[in-house]
Amino acid sequence: MNKTLAKYFFLWILILSFDLALCGMVKIGEKAPAISLMKLENREYFESEKLLGEKNMVICFFSTWSKPFNKEIPNLIKMSKEFDDDCLFLLVAVKEKKPLVRDYIERRDIPLQVVMDKFGKTIKNFGGKEVPMVVVIDKNGLITYHRTGYEKGDEIKLTEHLNTDLK
Questions:
Q1: N or C: which end of the chain has fewer CB within 10 A?
Q2: Contact 26/33 with Cβ under 8 angstroms?
Q3: Residue range 52-62: mean pLDDT, rounded
Q4: DSSP result, 32-79
């Protein structure tokens, strides 16, 4: 009897864990969670809901220590200039301290808007567990692209997506 009860208990825990893991995942075509985070340069909040109907958003969750992000950032800067009329490029610093991020951004002369996800709640809302993570939200507030990590060539896929799927 104890072994049977233990099996059911283990099975229940496994199902519950799997269900909780799926709850945090976002899917292409779903409405994006709202973003309301403090901007790096001042004490104002960036609120994604204010951009609905106006611009698409390309959001990159990052940490200053992330080697893949350091490889990707030059491509994001280049794309931000190319798609300036249609897209807002936003960097979200995850679980970082403001002075460290400010120094990082200034030393590299990164011109993109930066907001602070101090406790990592926003990246979790988007189903993220690691950085960099890039998410594209269209003007209607729907997720159209979602990628974790960075490999050479990912910038080509993102550029194609911005050129074709958001026009």
A1: N
A2: yes
A3: 95
A4: PPP-EEEESSSSPEEEGGGGTTT-EEEEEEE-TT-HHHHHHHHHHHHH
Name the residue with tokens 């890039």: 134
Scanning the structure block, which residue is given the tokens 């050129």?
163
- What distance in Å separates the CA atoms of residue 62 and residue 92, rounded to the nearest whole number? 6
Q: Which CATH superfamily is domain 26-164 in?
A: Glutaredoxin (3.40.30.10)
Q: How far apart are CA 96 and CA 62, in angstroms?
A: 9
d(Cα 10, Cα 14) in Å, to the nearest integer?
6
Tokens describing residue 86: 């249609």
Provide the pLDDT confidence category of residue 18 given band limits of 50, 70 and 90: very low
* Residue reference for tokens 């990159």: 60
**pLDDT more than 90, % of the chain:** 78
Parse the chain into domains and list their residue ranges. Answer: 26-164
State pTM to two decimals.
0.84
> Quick one: angle between helices 154-164 and 67-82, nearest 10?
30
Interior CA angle at 13 toward 11 and 15, to 5°?
Answer: 70
Tokens representing 133 are 């993570």
